[in-house]
Amino acid sequence: MWFSGRTLTAQAAFVLGVGGASLLAGFGAALTSSKRKDSEMFAKGLENGTTLAFRALGRATLYSVGGFTLFCLGVCGMLGVRNVKDFGKKMQELMPPVPRKENPGKSDFKNAEELIDYIIKDGKKR
Asked: Which residue stretches, if any, does this entry annotate as coiled coil (predicted)?
């Protein structure tokens, strides 16, 4: 993998750099679009707050959904998987197994009242 030899600091710097660049590009694009749409109002600094909020929400939604879609497609492409089942198998190969602990408490309750009583009694023990 391209990131396996990199340190955590380098990986974090890369992700923060891409995020920062995306933030600046999105803000710049919104500002440019607003200026093109109505340069007179832009110069005055007046725009209907509701219109601005809806435009910002629409763009943010588009950017976030589109960005996450591209991210998912990129990860799937790098891993060489085509569906969720393959992705799960690939993650099990790449990641260390999660240690499982036995539940030290009771887990077979007959009804909600028994569960609540157990929670109250267990809370008093601590």
From this structure: none
Task: State the CB neighbour count (10 A cutoff) for residue 41.
Answer: 13
- Secondary structure (DSSP) of 44-61: HT---HHHHHHHHHHHHH
- How many domains are contained in the chain? 1
Q: What is the pLDDT of residues 29-87, one digit of tens each?
A: 877 877 777 777 666 665 567 677 778 888 888 999 899 989 988 888 888 888 888 88
Measured distance CA(83)–CA(76) in Å, rounded: 8
pTM assigned to the model? 0.42
What's the domain range around 46?
A: 8-94
Q: Does residue 37 fall inside a structural domain?
A: yes
> Tokens 């929400």 — which residue?
57
Q: How far is CA 54 from the centre of its chain?
A: 22
